[in-house]
Design a protein that fits this description.
Elements: H1 4-21, H2 39-45, H3 48-54, H4 65-72, E1 76-80, E2 86-89, E3 102-103, E4 112-117, E5 124-129, E6 135-141, E7 151-155, E8 160-164, H5 178-191
Antiparallel strand pairs: 1-2, 1-8, 3-7, 4-5, 5-6, 6-7
């Protein structure tokens, strides 16, 4: 019986070590987001900097004007600047000193997708808006911040739209897929009205 104990301990240690190596991502990392637009369509509704960060996977300068504004913002909610999906709230916000907005958790986990990012010779976990695939930033674990999750969502402020508590949430960008348009037409036909575009 005693020789089995070291084997069990070694197996448990192996599982723990390798479980920590894998990013916490959902199986939907290859799923197509509901909002799909061409680069030209995105350029029509975003500033040049918003486009570079959210659509081209860029990174804004640390400790910039947007970060200074973020540090001063009170209670409220942070939405995707591209499609209006809720991403974070001030309840998960914390000061990390890294120069970019930091949150310890996503307020609506269904809207923030995590996926492996092996670009630039690094192994990281990228965070994107699940609705429109906007690049938000990266999430890091085990840095020792005294937060409930010991995770840091390091987010580009330009990718966020802040709405103070009690303010009106931005309108969600409409899903314009063929499936949605077909369903709208079916519902309108059943209701006896012409479908709206």
């Amino acid at each position: 019986m005693k020789p089995i104990l070291p084997l069990l301990l070694a197996t448990a240690a192996f599982c723990v070590l390798h479980a920590e190596d894998k990013p916490k991502s959902t199986p939907e990392t290859t799923a197509k987001p509901p909002i799909v637009k061409t680069e030209e369509d995105w350029k029509k509704i975003l500033t040049d900097e918003q486009f570079q960060v959210t659509r081209m996977r860029g990174t804004e300068r640390p400790f910039g004007k947007i970060y200074e504004e973020f540090e001063k913002q009170g209670e409220g909610t942070y939405y995707c600047v591209c499609c209006g999906a809720e991403l974070f709230t001030s309840s998960e916000k914390f000061h990390s000193g890294c120069g970019w907005p930091s949150f310890y958790d996503a307020s609506k986990a269904k809207n923030v997708l995590e996926r492996a990012d092996n670009s630039h010779g690094m192994r990281r976990v990228e965070t994107v808006c699940k609705r429109c695939d906007a690049h938000l930033g990266h999430v890091f674990e085990g840095e020792g911040f005294k937060t409930p999750t010991d995770r840091r969502f390091c987010i580009n402020g330009i990718a966020l739209k802040f709405v103070p508590k009690g303010g009106e949430a931005p309108k969600l960008l409409e899903v314009a897929s063929d499936e949605v348009q077909k369903k709208k037409a079916e519902v309108a036909k059943e209701g006896g009205t012409a479908p709206g575009k």
